[in-house]
């Protein structure tokens, strides 16, 4: 934090405002003017660049930094959002960002099979809209995935993407700050992204690890040699403050780099020879064009990169014809959408008064502890404390297929004012299972399914670039994904029934989720029903611009991230992942950004 005087007032308002309604105004009031120093241009300083990067998330920010290291290249970075501000740096503020000014506000289509307890039966899908992308609003969790994930990518024909070849890029991006016995072969210590343990921890984090040992699991480094086991959470955190992609990679002042915010790219410019040569974008209601002599690098994220390709004539022929968009390249853009789905409804009331309750955190000593030392619960992203990766009976290989994620908080932490609204949970659901435990200390264990079998799809609503896309999650189309989650619920309940948790009087919240009243609480059919009501979006969406070899009919980009059939156009973000890794994918996108930048450098040097 560069100025404690600048953060004191907004922090007090964040925690103590009785309505919490003005928080989103605070995000604007303490936004770009109070951001850490990132040089920006109102408009590009020139019309012609060597490279144009679209989107400033962990892929785009990384590529921008690395390409601009070459002083002979001119780089333009266009970002639709604004810089993050002081409030974004406070990890606890994570609970209030969904549906705010830093979020695109995307929602899934109703499918009658999932999100039944959400407003309009549509899950929200928070996506960051700022320098830093979703790393400015997420829970900051840093887990890369399993070694086998990347070996499988290579086995699919994606040369150079096996674990041995991607590990150096994970290490290059990482500044590992966790003391203890960690294998340096798996970690980097001089990179851009700060990785550390939370600066605050409740006794439940330790109980979580001890309970795992009671059940026969090891305490492990989830980013090390063996992923299966229990661990304190690793965060993209800089001594208690958020370390976003923009903070990690864009705090640079280079004469060959122009960063323009509030610039919404509308389409990619492609000539008659199928060569990308620039972009059309809008800022303050005026349309402009910018030109790239070498490449356009698309890093707008899984949703918007797919949308931009389709708006530019690269996508499924039938769909583009339906939208009235001339087809330049028939490609399976928007298919293969994947996500890790969890379950909100596993909360536990506890006797120990140490969890996150916003009214309690307004105490001046807690505020001052964070302002001056970056310690205490305000340094925690929504109470994230510990994590476990486990194998269920359905696992098909050596990888874990379920995750347990411990929060020292519940959706009742702010009495329903902001947290649950951002995720779209209805009043009916909240009032039934969370309102009765308002003011009580609560922990939440989030079971999350991995290796999902269901696949979704993104389509255009129209050829108007300002229309939000149609997002079909298709969650639970394959019911095996529900069965894996059900096993995760059983593991979590078994965990809290061990002695390390029992000594804290942990009791499951047995109030029934609306829509599932006909089932006996705790039976398998009750949990199957409840999962469909209130699934948790992990915000790990990927796969809509699939990477694959030329003989893969579903591949959109090649293993060097070049769009098939279009010269001088690459995609560098989570959309290129052919299969979702067993982890929280921000770390993977940093890796893709580092590797993608080296591929571009190799091409042009």
UniProtKB/TrEMBL annotation:
According to the record, the signal peptide region is 1-20
Which keywords does this Swiss-Prot/TrEMBL entry list? FAD, Flavoprotein, Signal
Which residues are noted in the entry as FAD-binding?
134, 138-141, 265
Q: Which coenzyme or cofactor does it need? A: FAD
Which InterPro entries does the annotation name? FAD/NAD-bd_sf (IPR036188), GMC_OxRdtase (IPR012132), GMC_OxRdtase_N (IPR000172), GMC_OxRtase_C (IPR007867)
Q: Domain of life of the organism in this record?
A: Eukaryota
Q: Which residues are named in the active-site annotation?
A: 540 (proton donor), 584 (proton acceptor)
Domain Glucose-methanol-choline oxidoreductase N-terminal residue range list = 128-151
**Gene Ontology MF annotations:** flavin adenine dinucleotide binding; oxidoreductase activity, acting on CH-OH group of donors
Please state which protein family the record places this protein in.
Belongs to the GMC oxidoreductase family.
- The name on file for this protein is Glucose-methanol-choline oxidoreductase N-terminal domain-containing protein
Instruction: State the organism of origin.
Output: Aphidius gifuensis
